[in-house]
Amino acid sequence: MIFPIFFTFSLLLSSSLASVKDFCIANYKSPEGPAGYSCKKPAKVTVDDFVYSGLGIPGNTTNIFKSAVTPAFAAQFPGVNGLGISFARLDLAVGGVMPLHTHPRGSEILLVAQGTIIAGFISSANNTVYRKTLKKGDIMAIPQGLLHFQVNGDKTPALAFVSFSSPSPGLQILDLALFQNDLPTELIAQTTVLDAAQIKKLKGVLGGTN
User: Fold this and answer.
1) 144-158 pLDDT, tens digit each
2) Does 138 count as an annotated binding residue?
């Protein structure tokens, strides 16, 4: 009997603590920590803290990947701090690609708003690829931390909106992690079995050294 009573009391206490504050608007005067930003003083909170207008503007796709991500994470949108949610816009020009990448702190749902997008992710258990060609109105769920990608699958620009289960889901692009740094070419060759000449070429294109 003791454990059920203790468990019920713990749930009630957690619910009570969670409802102490309705929200925690990000205070950008302090650094972001593992639990997010500290809270802005309630007297300084305005309705504009809960509104973000940056996703109505197309991203700049004049880059090597012909793609652009416009985030509305806690760092840009103070109202989502502490809520366990965030949003982003993905623009893919013709031939555009969002290369293999991960969001270490959040799962996502991709909604295609315009064009056609080939999207998929790779399971960590057995490296199974789950891939689908998505059209306007289609959505796809992508589990937290898994490598995934999006490719423009048509001859017109594509647009998608992405929701996340974290106010700061993080982003690490595999190509940039490997080739946009000073990790020695020899070490990359040993750990990836890629040809050293190709590695140096990729480092040159993406801004890496060594």
Assistant:
1) 999 999 999 999 999
2) no
